[in-house]
What does this fold into?
Amino acid sequence: MACLGAIAIIMGVSFAGDLLGAVLPLPVPGSIYALVIMLLLLLTRAVKLEKVRAAGDFLISLMPLMFISPSVGLMTDFDAYKDILAPLLIICLVSTLVVMAVTGRVSQAIIRRGSAKREAGR
It folds into this structure.
């Protein structure tokens, strides 16, 4: 029953984000507003992480299923993409490598900064 309450909280925040996305004249998707709202709720401890963690983990475990439909759509429209397949694959490969490199560097910097703070505190 607790999981249903947590999913209700997550869906409520998602709805609020979508509502903000529809009302505000900014080119920001509602899902981004929802993420910011959830972050603020967690930071202010209006919503405790322990209360929504299990539901969040469950929803994340379902995420791969959400990619099946778009993948099937790409397969059925293969003739439309056949001419641009090589450039598309190159762009995907390069952008994936750049994202991996930047994420790795940022992660290393955060870990080093945390280690330096721990060393200074000793």
Notes: The first helix runs from residue 2 to 23. The chain has six helices and no strands.
